[in-house]
Amino acid sequence: MQRSDKNVTTTLHEPLLALDKEFNIQMANRAFYKIFEITEEETLGENLFELQGGHWDIAGLRKELQKIRKEKGLMTEVEIEHTFSTIGCHDICFNIQMLYKEGAEPLILLALRDITERKKGQQGHQEAKDKMEENAEMIQTLYLNSPAFMCTYMGPEHIYDLVNPAYQKLFGKRKIKDKTSLEALPELEEQGINKMLDKVYETGEPFIANQAQVWAAYDEGLSPAERYFNFSCQPMYGEDKKIIGVLGFGYEVTNEVIAKKREEANLRLILESIPQITITANAEGKIIFFNKYALDYSGLNGEEATTGKGWEKIIHPEELQSVVALAEACLITGKDFYKELRLKRKRDGKYRWHLLRATSIKDGNGGVIASWVGVATDIQEQKIKEEKKDEFMNIASHEMKTPLASIKGYLQLLEMTLDKDTDSTLYVNKALVSVNRLNNLITELLEVGKSQNGKLNYEITTFDFNKMLVETINDERKTSSDYTIIKKGSITSEIKGDHDRLQQVIINLLSNAIKYSPNEKKIVVTAKEKNGELIISVKDNGIGISKENLEHIFKRYFRVEDQAMRFQGMGIGLYLSNEIIKRHKGKMWVESEIGKGSTFYFSIPAGGRKSDK
Ligand code: ADP
């Protein structure tokens, strides 16, 4: 690689760019234009990586920029050797600084320092005066009208030299320029600001603060007020690489911080008064708040309650593993957490069922997760009621099964003894239809019980799914002749599964589509295969399901309340269908819009498919 002869060390100090978060150039200084031989028009608004024909797409730089943006870092430096189209090969130290302001897009400052000479082992010499002028020029171009504040402190006493209008505005009519930092803002001394400036000046290490609390008066004659700033202080170099001053840059974020604090305090007040276990955690899942109820219920001490491990102690061992796995998954995906689990109550040492719901709270900037709120509601009473209901349903249906079978038998005998085409035969037939319906209902109820206990039998065979689907649709067409059922697509291979139970799922979806579409009589069944899975959907244009009901639709005994009187049913068809699909290692889901119709889907692995015919 050929090194350029042009000695740019004297001219290439501090070309500076300000980028938005997509790396589009918002501001550039004169040094940048001059050194890289580019005009303002060619630069502003351009993406850095597309500048000068993609010449600035420097892998190492791109990596650092993306990293700091992703990790929300504050400052980083990277030294890269690069051959520039204009100045040839140089070692450049890229200093990247992120400036965050609540409610605004972050700003990325990219300062370039030519370190070619240093790399070659030589010290570059330059006039301190020149340097100062360059710096001053840069500051003026960039920040005179900038909403960000900016100032320079010169020498060991930190004398304010450049003070941009935004900085002056922070302190009203107080005289700042040409004073030492102590004279200008004496109240800052006790707060360590002067010490910090000393340190930057002496060591050359930049100082960066995020939401730093500073007590400073807004104007002459006022007492110091609580204020917050995001700022950076960086050394400025003069002759022989000696530090000549400090460059201060930043934003006041008092309003944002105070509003956020107030919001947090209100939120805490609300959470504290909820008679449910309530915790909040940061984006990484670290617990930052728990209410008193949580401590009272669990008996955990304050320290234990701040760690996931502490809470694990009171989760029932049977749920523990799945809860931990789900929580980890939610932290990664950002999806809401929703789970029933048993938590041990300190008072009586008994586990009680809770519904734990954790929701992510996103911040305004690009919807990044800021924190989590988790609430565990005691559902023990509900659970007991549900269990009692299940138990009752189970016993009742068991007890009904035998008498019903004999009623059916007698009706069939009666039918045989009667002359055909008489009124009596008609009545017997009607009775038989009702008995059959009752029988189906009882069978379904018993199946719910069995499915809960994991006792639902499955007979797995390899069969022609498409044939089963066509037969089922044809049967449904016969019983609901006023509906048009269209079949689209086909499953070409044989599949492995329980023929009758999968048929039961399709019958259930078809009969629901018909039942809940009293006016729109077109149903579309679609079958397709994708990546070794079959996907079946049943679409109707019926009454549809509202968003809040959708999440409960597969629960047992769930029925949409305001429709329950209009349509017969028990709310177990979908529950059973979902259980059957789960047992086939598949999944079921639904898309629906109220008044427009619903599409129910399920997918299952094709399993023991033979070669495609
Ligand atoms: P059932 O139909 O016996 O009540 P399901 O478990 O099959 O029980 O369905 C549960 C509930 O879901 C129904 O009560 C109904 O409110 C709603 N539902 C099911 N399928 C549809 C559909 N295709 N369109 C609108 N609502 C539906």
Provide a compact summary of the structure.
The chain contains 19 helices and 22 strands. It is an alpha+beta fold and 613 residues long.
Low-confidence stretches: 1-12, 608-613
Beta strand count? 22
Main beta sheet: 5 strands, antiparallel
- Form type: elongated
Q: Which ligands, by name, code or SMILES, are bound? A: adenosine-5'-diphosphate
Pairing-aware structural class of the strands and helices?
Answer: alpha+beta
Distance between the terminal alpha carbons, to the nearest Å? 62 Å
Mean pLDDT: 86
The largest sheet has its strands arranged as 2-1-5-4-3
Radius of gyration: 36 Å
Helix content: 25-40%
Q: Please state roughly what percent of the residues sit in beta strands, choosing from under 5%, 5-15%, 15-25%, 25-35%, 35-45% or over 45%.
A: 25-35%
Helix tally equals 19
